[in-house]
Amino acid sequence: MKKVGTGKILSVISILASGVFWGVISLFIKPLSAAGLSATQICFVRLMIAAPVFAIITLCVSPALFRFRLRDIWMFIGTGIISIVLFNVCYFYTIIQSEASVAVVLLYTSPIFVMIFSVLLFREKIGLRKLGALILAFVGCLLVSGVIGTGAHLRPFIVLTGLLSGLFYALYSIFGSMALKKYDTLTVTTYTFLFAAVAALPFSDLTSTFSILAASPRLWLWGAGIAVVSTALPYFFYTFGLKKVEASRASILVALEPIVGSIVGITVYGEGHGALKLVGILFVIGAIIVLNLPKRRPSVPVPDHTIRLESAEEPAKAPALEQESLASCKK
């Protein structure tokens, strides 16, 4: 069996942790939504608070981490605007126009996109193990979401926005992997959220957002919760994990998110937990286990000592031949 380094184990754990933190997001969304904030306004609140949190932490750790080359700005536009902002807009639109379960299933087409990009851009090898884990994870998310058996009818445009949310979600892994080759985890996450917060301003309806938040100080606590627990922490852990884990593998590991979300729904909100949902949870856990099984080392052929002995005897024959040639000369 091939040994796995401590750094890689920590990276896998950090990616799984990000899935847990993203999975509990409903604990914060429900009270904020009940107060009258729309999905896009909640998105802006999480970015508005998360961005300065990252900036302050980076400033305390090392101001030098703010440095980046202007020619690399496209990486942070990719992680912040193309990925986070466009992902949230498409994802929340899909939720509003259809159902959350449908949006989750379409979102978790993202590992397929990540795998395609990883092969084309990073020359990653996609073996049977990764393909099997991908199928297990996607079917598991399908079962956990409860979309099977609901008879949901979707308009083509909703399918398109749902698939785009999966694409933009996948692009964070791609742009993030590229940025991490040059910059620290804190640098990447800080600029990601600074760019995202600025880009989200046109969708936020600032006057309405702040008037709703001002009505109840408790809403600021829920806003801080979603910004720190379900935004800053998971994105930091996921980005940290991308240093040692391939993007295609990370995108499957983070499928733990809908499982945690389902458990929160069952235990906190009393949502249904049929047999299909439980099977889906087992499927996703199975995908995670399959991905993390140690690889077998190729068998080493046993050396043939007989051949070595024969080759060792060959030099001994040389003097005998020399003696025969000398004898013939003397004759």
Query: From N to C, what is the helix and strand string?
Result: HHHHHHHHHHHHHHH
> Which outline best applies?
globular
Query: Mean of the pLDDT scores?
Result: 84
Number of domains: 1
Strand content: under 5%
Structural Rg: 28 Å
Low-confidence stretches: 306-314
Q: What structural class results from the helix and strand content?
A: mainly alpha
Distance between the termini: 66 Å
**Helix residue percentage:** over 70%
Q: Characterize the biggest β-sheet.
A: none
The multimeric state of the shown protein is single chain
Notes on the structure:
The chain is globular. Helix 6 (110-122) runs antiparallel to helix 12. The N and C termini lie far apart (66 Å). It has 15 helices and no strands. Residues 306-314 have low confidence and may be disordered. The protein has one domain (6-291). By secondary structure, the protein is mainly α. Helix content is 76%, strand content 0%.
Can you tag this structure with a few keywords?
globular; 331 residues; mainly alpha; 76% helix
Task: Describe the secondary structure blueprint for this structure.
Blueprint: H1 6-23, H2 26-34, H3 39-61, H4 73-97, H5 100-107, H6 110-122, H7 128-145, H8 156-180, H9 185-200, H10 206-215, H11 217-241, H12 247-253, H13 256-268, H14 275-291, H15 305-330
